[in-house]
Amino acid sequence: MTVGSSAPVQGAPVSCVAFRADGARLASGSTDHTVRIWETADPRRPVIHTTLPHSAPITSVSWNPGAADVLATGTADGTVSVWRVVDDRPPSLMKALPGHPGAITTVAWTPDGQHLLCLIGGGRLAVWNPFDEAFLGEIPDCVRLDVSPSGLVATAGVDGLVSVRDLWRDAAPLARRPVAVAEACAWSPGGDVLAVAGEDGSIEMFRPDLTPMRRIHPGDVPLRGLTWAPDGRHLIAGGYDGSLMALSMNRPLWRRSHALVWPRSLAVGGTVVASATFAGRPHLLDLLAGGTIGAPADAPAPSSDPLSVPFRGGVLAANGRVVTAGTGDDRRVLWEHDARIGAVSALADRVVVSAAHRAIRLLVLAAEGLTADHAVTLHAPEPVKTVAVLGSPSVPVVVAASYDFRLYAWTVDWSGPPSGPRLVGEFGAGIAALNRLGDYRLTATDNRGELVILALGEDGALSP
Fold this sequence. Notes:
Layout: E1 3-5, E2 14-19, E3 25-30, E4 34-39, E5 47-53, E6 58-63, E7 70-75, E8 80-84, E9 92-97, E10 104-109, E11 116-120, E12 124-129, E13 134-140, E14 144-147, E15 153-156, E16 161-166, E17 170-178, E18 182-187, E19 194-198, E20 203-206, E21 212-216, E22 223-228, E23 234-239, E24 243-248, E25 251-257, E26 261-269, E27 272-277, E28 283-286, E29 292-294, E30 308-311, E31 314-319, E32 322-327, E33 330-336, E34 343-347, E35 351-356, E36 359-365, E37 372-379, E38 384-391, E39 396-402, E40 406-411, E41 419-426, E42 431-436, E43 441-446, E44 451-456, E45 462-463
Antiparallel strand pairs: 1-5, 2-3, 3-4, 4-5, 6-7, 7-8, 8-9, 10-11, 11-12, 12-13, 14-15, 15-16, 16-17, 18-19, 19-20, 20-21, 22-23, 23-24, 24-25, 26-27, 27-28, 28-29, 30-31, 31-32, 32-33, 34-35, 35-36, 36-37, 38-39, 39-40, 40-41, 42-43, 43-44, 44-45
């Protein structure tokens, strides 16, 4: 470990960020198995104060609200650790809670600082008194989580319901409400408003009893991260496309975008906004103006436009939720998705594919005209950043890269149901672009500019 170091930071992605209450320290967790504590009293010149080693990629960090020098960390191997991080001496590991049956996706303290909520991949929430190493129970069907200043626990489940609980009185929900797919939820600093971000780019505001207050729609990009500024007047949202925006009094204040921003985790300390990134250091912006304070290095330029490809002497293109084909003003709508389209691809002037969040639409068009001979909708395990199609019209293979690290493939034999999704591989720096090298090969480029060539075998498997 290092204390007070200003050495070069890790090149691995920063997966999570959290400011200490006074804004003078920022914890950032990385996929390289380390947590770095940054001194951010002067955010223009952040300095690494301490590095905490772990045995697996870091997935979540959370400062204790009752003890400013206590930090909880969660990792991909299911371990939760509690550290004491004091400014003037080396950090120490206080407690370790291993053995959770899945990666820890979120750790969150209750307001008294005595209990820790640990969200486990797969949809379970474990409740601990970590200092006594006492397991207090769990809540099922939970994929998103936030705790209010009064101790109310908001959760969103795969069942499409948002719930609010007072765990210390009754584990049963005080209120439940169906919502659109909830990608994030966040309590206001006063605990009187729960904001829920959706895949359609909207943000719904609820009272603690889940009575609707208002719904705002700052854009159509699916939202991934959500957090409030300590003043309670600013709400920060992050989109899957790497965009960050600030809302003041429910009106857009600014919007910024960077190819390396990875807003699975957001934090605000004073007037500084921090975001996770695919680079080796957090992305820092000014809360009020949106100006960059500290940014990762520029990402390699993608080698293709994910929303437009040549097709039949014209262009196959996506605009919002609509896919069109044609030339100039002579364009025809092929279909419309329920969410904003992130990528399109084509094969042999007959096969077309588009991805919108988790939905992938595949069509085989007639040799003449734009009528469909075959069509199917595939469902990805996680939101899709970019897509490609290989093979032939009779047996197309759809390849989809997630916004994180994974590459999936489906084989579609029109004589039966699609085969997949199959996990093709994982990229440590995230996947930036897919580009076809003909009907049976493609390149996958990560956010560092490193390239891998993948080939389609006779058995339909895709491999390097």
